[in-house]
Amino acid sequence: MALQALADEGNIVHIYDFRVKPGCGDEFIRLFNEHDFSEDNPMHKAPARMKDGVLCRHSTDPDRFYLIGEWKSIEAHKACLQEIMAGPRPKFFDLLEAGRMVPPAYASVVSSTAHEHLAHQHDK
Question: Where are the domains of the chain?
Fold first, then answer.
């Protein structure tokens, strides 16, 4: 299998950095996955979503998380967030210290290893 770049040049990534209520990290993961893998998640139906996001847990703080995903545009991601907020509130939101999830950062992907280069590197 050829290696793949984490994100493609020209797209954007959202980077969430958030905490859950003390001691709720494991329950948060369970509820997040329950919602994320459900048919009710509009993120998975959005054509502007380029790759499935990843939820990461901080290595020394079990109640701190990062959520990273790749989209075609900031506007498309924000529109999907509005759709989520207009529907029933996902259960995992109740465990967030801030009570909501808003990405504190969007970043434009300005350099990404070309697919041809990655395939060549894997063959070595």
Answer: 12-123
| Model pTM score | 0.82
> What torsion, rounded to 10 degrees, do the Cα atoms 113, 119, 123, 124 define?
-10
**54-106 pLDDT per residue, tens:** 999 999 999 999 999 898 999 988 888 888 888 888 899 999 998 777 777 78
| DSSP string covering 51-98 | EEEEEEE-SS-TTEEEEEEEES-HHHHHHHHHHHHHSPPPGGGGGBSS
C-alpha pair distances (Å), 50 with each of 2, 9, 23, 66, 103: 18, 12, 33, 18, 17
Distance CA 69, CA 91 (A): 20
Say how many Å lie between the first and final Cα of the chain, rounded. Answer: 13
CATH fold label, 12-123: Alpha-Beta Plaits (3.30.70)
